[in-house]
């Protein structure tokens, strides 16, 4: 009995030692805060600044680069002058655009009006686009933000920018958080909140969101265990669902606290 008590006491000591080291001996690593929205006064902008705003929106809030990239998930958006002229002259085009700017706006707001051959939603014979209306859902671009992206795309294609900067408006734009190193942000408290803030619904069906570019996650908890879900968030290219291409950015390990990651895993595991 005495030997048993020694073993128990020694085990408690070792566990306490490791717990103490884990809590106080290992430096805490603060993740980079996710982007936050900041109002931008458009009336004070010149065109170069407006184009820069469009580039930032294109790569952040708009999530455009998730699909419009060299992986071929969606058409590339360079050399727009020749491409748009070709598409407007296509017999299958049924929209009302007359130039590059109006075509881009139409494509973002009503993407199924014209679907480039080979890029339609599976089973629709290129009659329906998998791209969401950028005005709705987790993307939610304003008219001013859409125009900024158009200005950026025209400029990137070497075209003269044809849109004007809206006057008397302000636009929210995602900025990198400016907190100093080691400062803390508020913690997210639910998995649903994390899904909304990170824009998961832009690509996935999950909760109230109806994205169609990535795998359907509405019942993912009955299909994958917690370990798989956690790995898919931290290393999204480790296991690609059949029929999809690598497109999810591997950034969430740096943007989420460990407790938030577990909240997200808990929420996804509950979807059955």
The percent range for helix content is 25-40%
Strand order of the largest sheet: 1-2
CATH architecture classification of the largest domain: Orthogonal Bundle
* Low-confidence parts: 26-32, 175-183
Question: For the CA atoms, what is the radius of gyration?
Answer: 23 Å
Task: Report the top-level CATH class of the largest domain.
Answer: Mainly Alpha
Share in β-strands? 5-15%
Instruction: Let me know the average pLDDT.
Output: 81
What is the domain tally?
Answer: 2
CATH T-level fold name of the largest domain: Cytochrome Bc1 Complex, Chain D, domain 2
SSE order in H/E notation? HEHHHHEHEEHHH
Shape: elongated
How would a crystallographer describe the biggest sheet?
2 strands, antiparallel
- Which structural class is indicated by helix and strand composition? mainly alpha
Cα(first) to Cα(last) distance is 49 Å
Work out the helix count: 9
> Can you count the beta strands?
4
List the helices and strands and how they pair.
Blueprint: H1 2-25, E1 36-41, H2 47-59, H3 80-88, H4 100-109, H5 143-156, E2 170-175, H6 191-198, E3 205-206, E4 209-210, H7 226-234, H8 252-255, H9 258-269
Antiparallel strand pairs: 1-2, 3-4
Helix pairs in contact: 2-5, 4-5, 6-9, 7-9
């Amino acid at each position: 009995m005495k030997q048993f008590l020694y073993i128990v006491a020694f085990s408690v000591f070792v566990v306490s030692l490791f717990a103490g080291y884990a809590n106080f001996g290992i430096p805490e690593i603060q993740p980079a805060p996710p982007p936050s929205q900041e109002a931008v006064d458009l009336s004070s902008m010149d065109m170069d600044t407006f184009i820069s705003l469009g580039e930032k929106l294109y790569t952040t809030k708009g999530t455009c680069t998730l699909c419009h990239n060299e992986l071929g998930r969606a058409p590339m958006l360079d050399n727009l002058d020749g491409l748009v002229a070709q598409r407007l002259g296509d017999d299958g085009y049924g929209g009302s655009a007359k130039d590059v700017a109006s075509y881009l706006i139409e494509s973002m707001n009503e993407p199924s009006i014209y679907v480039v051959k080979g890029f339609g939603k599976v089973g629709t014979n290129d009659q329906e686009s998998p791209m969401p209306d950028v005005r709705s859902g987790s993307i939610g671009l304003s008219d001013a933000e859409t125009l900024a992206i158009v200005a950026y795309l025209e400029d990137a294609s070497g075209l003269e920018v044809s849109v004007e900067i809206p006057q008397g408006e302000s636009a929210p734009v995602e900025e990198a958080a400016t907190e100093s190193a080691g400062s803390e942000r508020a913690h997210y408290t639910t998995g649903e909140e994390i899904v909304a803030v990170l824009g998961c619904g832009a690509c996935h069906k999950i909760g109230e969101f109806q994205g169609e570019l990535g795998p359907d996650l509405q019942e993912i908890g009955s299909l994958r265990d917690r370990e798989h879900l956690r790995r898919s968030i931290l290393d999204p290219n480790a296991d690609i669902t059949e029929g999809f291409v690598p497109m999810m950015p591997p950034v969430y390990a740096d943007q989420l606290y460990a407790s938030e990651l577990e909240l997200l895993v808990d929420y996804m595991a509950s979807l059955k």
